Structures
1.
Amino acid sequence: MTTVNITVNGQQYSHEVEPRLLLVHYLRDVLGMTGTHVGCDTSQCGACTVHIDGVAVKSCTVLAVQADGSRITTIEGLATDGQLHPLQEGFWEKHGLQCGFCTPGMIMSAADLLKRNPNPSEEEIRLGLEGNICRCTGYHNIVRAVQYAAEKMKVNA
Amino acid sequence: MATQMIGASIKRVEDPRFITGKGLYTDDIQLPGMTYAVFVRSPHAHAKINSLNISAAKAMPGVTAIYTGEDMKKAGIGGPICGWSLPGLKLPAHPPMAVDRVRYVGEPIAVVLASDPYTAQDAAEAVEVDYDPLPAVADPKQAHGGPTIHDEAPDNIAFDWSIGDQAKTDAAFASAHKTVRLDLVNNRLIPNALEPRAAIARVEPTGDITLWLTSQNPHIHRLLMAAFMLNIPEQKFRVIAPDVGGGFGSKIFVYAEEVVMVWAAMQSKRPVKWTSTRRESYIADAHGRDHVTEAEMAFDADGHITGLRVKTWAGMGAYLSTFATAVPTYLYGTLLSGQYPIPAIYCNTLGVFTNTVMVDAYRGAGRPEATYVVERLVDLGAYELGLDPAEIRRRNLIPPDQFPFQTQVALQYDSGNYAATLDKALEKLGYGDLRAEQEAARQQGRYIGIGFSTAIEACGLAPSAVVGSLGAGAGQWESALVRVHPTGKISVQTGSHSHGQGHETTFAQIVADGLGVPLEDVLIQHGDTAQSPFGYGTYGSRSAAVGGSAIAVSVKKLQDKIKRIAAHLLEAAPEDIDYAEGKATVRGAPERFKTFGEVALQAYLAHNYPTDIEPGLEATTFFDPTNFTFPYCVHIAVVEVDGGTGQVEVKRYIAVDDVGNIINPMIVAGQIHGGVAQGIGQALYESAVYDENGQLVTGSMMDYAVPKARYIPMIETDQTITPAPQNPLGVKGVGEIGAIASPAAIANAVVDALKHLGVTHIDMPITVQKVYAAIHADA
């Protein structure tokens, strides 16, 4: 067992973990933060996407011990002071989700995309979400949701 | 005037929990003392089990129990059953876990329980199984007469089913001006709901059992498991389907793992949890489609369709899943008339056992297969007759004055104006200009194709007497309990289930309109057998048409009761009371009224109350439709094929759908988008490939191409509306039409792009390799 110190959504945690424990299982099973989902086992679907030190990462592909000392943001920590993140708002406004299972990872990936490229074209959004699979929406309204958020963040900036 | 809710794009009530990570899916649930299950599965497609050694696994620290197929056999536990009978159907036993023989890769053999999931996985890998491999077959046509999979069906034929008039059809072909023939494959698909299946079972202190399950129909799961597999009193068995992350059919069925979880919880006296990995779901979830078909269409000199003859080998997998037998028969053969008055049709389907995981309903279920056969043949006929594909369809569409229309394959279509929908789609496309553009591009060596799909489906499953007469072991009505509380707040129990469809919003819209209350006063609840009356769940685009109608009828009953209570309070006759916008008013005296809240409170106080009616204000309805509903559409795909590489790009996709009245246009469009995307996936990318040994080659998300964002275009949606005459909401259903229509539209577009090169057909998925080979066939 190894000790890890990880800050998740601003709160510091310290746990003894098996070296093979995946970060996504640490978040879900040890911390009980079940907003981050597991949709595959080959790092294709992106449902497990979180931010590690500000960068979108698939948490099924990282060991908890590798995240030792890092700051992690999950979907639960994206809204600030009770205010939805513009992407959360966009997904709601534009019907960017149906079953909701891909949504946390999709939003976390899109947040990273908008940080790197605040004004993406439709094609750039589609390419930027290459690592996330949605089986319900056909992506149409996900693209719209990201466009909505980009617009909103421009106004707020 | 209160805002009209039905017809408005209300933002979804359920979304706040999903966008903040607070959805509660089965795998999110942790129970005290819970153990974790991992299955030992067959690596062989067909083999004899010589021995099973669990001693090393059992000795591992943290392992709490291991159960085998033999243990369950001794306990008399049954396995999954098939719920739809056909004449002459062979029904081999389907053990929950294999005992002495395995028949597909992934068949469960034993289950390991441990205190944490990683330990359970280690122990499962330590279970030793000795096999003698047997010859295997995965292709449905090759399986016909191939290595025997069940002794009950030596030639592997589970059923031999026909519909239509063979002699009349043969005569139509004999006298035809022109006939066309296609041998085609409807490619096998893996549903890929993004949430993998999961189950948690717990024995409560009372001895009752609770099962949390990724289910589209918790009551069906409870009924089948209680009555046919586990022999548990139904009232002591509670099935909860919490938030469910997509289903597309794959979560309808009762699976072996679910039966095993309940039994394991009863044996081990601890809660047990199983969550499928994705790779596991690829070998253990029911797949879809898997048809090999020979089809012919006959035409007269004017391009009218005069006959259709179809023979299909439908892969069933190694055992018959819950609704497997209905899919390539009553959901397929009955749809072969399309939108056309085809005077002679004959279809013969052979259901064939194969050494693969089970095949059952996947979004569209039989109807995409039928649409693909009909629409590909119509296009081929147009090509052979030198007719424009839009024109041949126009000549053949059922005219609007022919409804209700009786087809030659059992169905009576409800309503429609098919030509109007075609006109609207052509206008939206700008068809004339596009054909000119196609020609100009061809001159420059660019291959643009325009593909049509004029599709119809039978959904809103279903009139119970009809499905009963066709072999279903179930009714297909739906329940709704609308309960007004003393404060005037409302909760609704529906027997249908949302796993992405947005029932919490659309069903609340129905109630809010009907009772004239704010949307936020209405709570829609579903998915818990301990809460709601028996219901048949969600599939077959039935939720709005059947479940929504049940709610609408309950609302009507409440309106009537409200009028009677208000009449008493206002000292008027009930027939003189109007109820609208939350007020019961004496007709002609607008100052004399009682509000909904006042009536609700009085219904529970009953201090000043009519003596001839019961207190309380709630209504339960079991709505059984009189017919299926028949949504229809015209979808048009525009593709560009790169002649150098074979790459197909979908440039535009137009979807003009007639799904009857629309409750929430935003949600309806979303259903179309998703359905079309799955159909584009089938047409261009997806295929479950088994090799000659029955190994699933496309066994992970790395190998099976679920479309990503850049492979799907924006979908240009529009609609015509012909209300369904047979339900109070006039809705037809929208969940499947996108997936039903789109494969044929895409395939027709690709062939249209290449027809000047002599290409007449490419099987799905239309991959770059196949397109390249078709283009360079002469080289």
2.
Amino acid sequence: MIQLPNHTWAIAGGKGGVGKSLLTVSLAYWLGRLKNDVTLLDGDLGGANLHTMLGLRIPHCTIDDFILRRVPSLDHLLLETALPNVKLIAGGSDVPALANPNFGQKTRLVRAMNAIDTDFLMVDLGAGSSLNTLDLFLAAPNKLVVLTPQPTSIQNAYGFIKAAFFRLVSRGLRGTSLQDLLDPANLRDEGAPQSAEEVLQEVAITEPGALPDIEERVANLKIHIIVNMVRAPKEERVGPVVSEVCRRFLGMETTLLGCVPYDPQMEKWAAVMDRESFVNRTAEGGALRASYDIAYRIAERTKNKDSTATKWIA
Amino acid sequence: MKLIDEWKQLLSGELDRPAWRDEEDGREALMPGAEESHSANSGPVDTFQDAPDSADASDSSDSSDTSGSSNASGSSDAPGSPEPYGSSDSSENGPSASSLLRAVERCVDDYASRSEYLKALSILKLASASGLPDDCLKPVLKELLRVQSSRNRDGQDPLPREFLGTPRLHIAWSVLTRDRLAIVPDEPILGSDCWIVARGTDVGPTATPWALVWWGRTEVAGKVRPAGRRTVSRRKLELTAAVALLGRANPRQGPTRFTAQITDLTPRGAGIEVKDRFDRLHGIQLKDKKIRIALCVPGRGEPISTLGLICWTEEKGDERDIRMGIKFVDPMPEFMEGVAELLSGRRDVQYLWNLIESNIGQAENTGKLGNA
């Protein structure tokens, strides 16, 4: 799988309705205000609606046009938005079959994403842990998981991180005798590993040679967490809780990037979603202000990385 | 490895099955249907020890050519005798891999149907040692583990899952194949970590192997594999429990209550850890004391509780932590259902729920004890 350039941030969350898309728009807004060229890409294949949030009711071109080879590159799909310095590549949902692109289509899409000339590429992924979502998430060097303090959201967010972990491990097991270990067809068996610990134990016993590579992959899987819609200070603890479980059971470090308070202004705007009114309607609320801090951290972290380090992993 | 060659030929039907002694002589047939074969054949052969002599007399290839063609047909044509395993695919150079594999599958199925699981494992061990590819044999083991887990655990043989220590295919296969397969008396027993195929009753020196694969029967040696010592599933947990000592250490005080961390759990008992920072348990003879223990199953509203007996205690470190082994006493079905739920669940999700409940406070963390 191709690794995307370092300015790419993939935003996922496992559960729908946690505010991924809205947060993505807020972050893009602030990154644009910080004089960066920002490209938003709706990675919710089959359920795209980011254009609606940006006031574009029916986009005249979508990512489907690229997958169907109607346009040669993603640059042809860039749509202007009302947000300063922010452009959008709208997701398509017209062709149901394209909700699940095949391997070749996915590879072509990721290569084309690699070629987009922008300071920040923000990929808004869909809910759930489908393989397409996981692959796009893993292809991005910067990974963001958005969750709310609701137990269902916490559980789904952890489930998503775990699914990404397993997807990563299964790639490391290709070509070994354990390549079917995480095959969904085998996971129903009683003897199938039930946890990351058991998977790594199995690898350590049966294919010890593959273990260092897998451990390196896991060590490089750095995920950032944002807790959205926080209503009380104690709800901010959700981030450390998920981080602790990831560290303990998946052996991976996660970083809490920030918390965004619950903001009724956002809900009011979400009910209308006017093209022009996003900033006007939400400027007074705490959410947009909180997302500035997060956007600033994102900008700092991206700048600190070597932007030319684009690597290919098997 | 002459014995393995013989075994391959035997399995593929090229050798006539040796006449197996019955159980009264200390042996039973390793090959399914051998007793029937014995009774059907008019000319009984003395013991298996007679069979290798014919093989010893010539090269293995020669023996497969000569004895193979004549004896296999003889035994298969005999009325009432079982069909030889995979005899149709035999080539001049010996049985083909596919015929051997089919024979192995049939053998294993046959043993599994009789709940003689360890014999089935022995067949797999021999098949692996004889060079059949792992990829072909692993599915057979997988099926064996599946069949065994779906049946009653009262089989005649020690159960392969217990013997191998895991129901997980890849690890089970690794355990099955990692130990050496020694053939005695041709090979000396150098250590105890080996399976042994023995022709006679005299295994040899003092070493105790994991398993004896007698040519007539299979048995586990007296030394039990550590992985197989536990007969019930056990899971490491991070779960908080409320514990009350029954009976009063001091008549003027109520029952001593404390919060404990459950570190592992089985259907029969639990290992718990108590941080006794204030010496509340100091000086109390905890062993053999009865307790009431309550714990919360994530997702269930009410805590589940049962009586327990402290079987052992151990002080841990300088922090006055005490570890205890608790045996559940007459647990109610509801309690056992809860424990089963905890055992079947995933530790990470349980831990996540515990952290959510303790940090965000949407549910009570620990079970609450009634009047103990």
